[in-house]
Amino acid sequence: MLKKIFLLVIFSTLSLFNAQEKDLLNVPNPIDFNGTEFYLIRAEQRSKTLFQQQYLPKDEEMEKFNQIFEYTFLNKEIDIELAVRQKVEMVQAKQKEDKYAKVNVTESPDGSEFIVDYYISEAPANGDPFVEYDIFRFKKYDNGTQKSFLILNYGKRIYGDMKSALKILSKQRDPLMTSMIEYKIPEIKIQTAANGTK
Q1: Do 13 and 19 meet the contact criterion of CB atoms below 8 Å apart?
Q2: Per-residue pLDDT tens listing for the chain (198 residues)
């Protein structure tokens, strides 16, 4: 059951429970990541326990973004190692037909966080081909009374020649990984229009 729930989170296929632009997680807006400001463009409560927020740099659009930052928060216990494994397996499955796909895993010293970073490519029928570099940071919380789970995701795309795009993104990996590791996560407080802060 847990596996099915988390797969739905990863691929964003859950039905929309409540969509609004108002911040739901007490995250400062804009977000400053690696010298770029990201602005909240979408905040969704996808179920009673699942909240997701997406951020883009100014003047960018979801249809053809260059960079994106996302918060996914689950107000319930999730097996962090299972979540990491599923993300890795997703990329590994793509490697069968994507020669640019590559995945890495990093674990924090205390085991409370993992980072999965990877490259994938796409050549859509309508649109420019691109290589995308993603960093997923998985963090579990336990305050003694409530267990919860947070996923941060930063993604960057370069459109055009895939070989050149991969070369550029590979050179940017280290500073982007450092920015994600050092990114200070604000205190998450669930907020809804009806109930205020929980």
Answers
A1: no
A2: 454 444 445 444 333 444 447 899 999 999 999 999 999 999 999 899 999 999 999 999 998 899 999 999 999 999 999 999 999 999 999 999 999 999 999 999 888 899 999 999 999 888 899 999 999 999 998 877 788 999 999 999 999 999 999 999 999 999 999 999 999 999 998 876 555 555
**Residue 50 neighbours by CB under 8 Å, 6+ apart:** 9, 14, 17, 72, 73, 74, 75
**Cβ pair 176, 36 in contact under 8 A:** no
Burial class (CB in 10 A: 0-12, 13-18, 19+), 119: buried
Q: How far apart are CA 144 and CA 14, in angstroms?
A: 29
Per the omega criterion (within 30 degrees of 0), is the bond before 186 cis? no
β-partners of residue 157 are 132
- Check: CB of residue 148 under 8 Å from CB of residue 138: no
What angle do helix axes 80-94 and 2-11 make, rounded to 10 degrees? 60
